[in-house]
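User: I'm writing a tutorial on reading structure tokens. Could you give me a worked example: one chain, its sequence, then its tokens, then a sentence or two explaining what the tokens reveal?
Assistant: Sure. Here is the example chain.
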Amino acid sequence: MQDLIQTPTSAAPVAIDENRLAQLRQKAALVAAVRPWKPEEGDTLEGQIVGSRKESGPFGEQPQMLVQTPEGGVFSVWLTRWLMEQLRAQQATAGSLVSLTFLGKEQSKTGKTFNRYSLVVA
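And here are its predicted structure tokens:
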């Protein structure tokens, strides 16, 4: 990376595409506004999928879905394998509407605790 960043020898103006700059600013504002969704049993998150990202979490690097609510808030949701499968099965894409309800913690047949959700995509 250090080879890519060099100190300019002159202060020549740089031509920047205004559309790309506007897109960058919009993306930066979205990233700065993201809050983690920390639901309690029965909580529902409704809104539009505005993107995804990978973040480091308690189980290493994992994907997150970014959902913007009608009020304008942007929330990140950790994507479990089940949620990923449901998003694929319901053909979710950026721009899709989602209703995600946290149904609580349950225990699998093997004794492992997991979060149960309900997911509807439109």
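What the tokens reveal: The longest strand covers residues 44-57. The mean pLDDT is 90.
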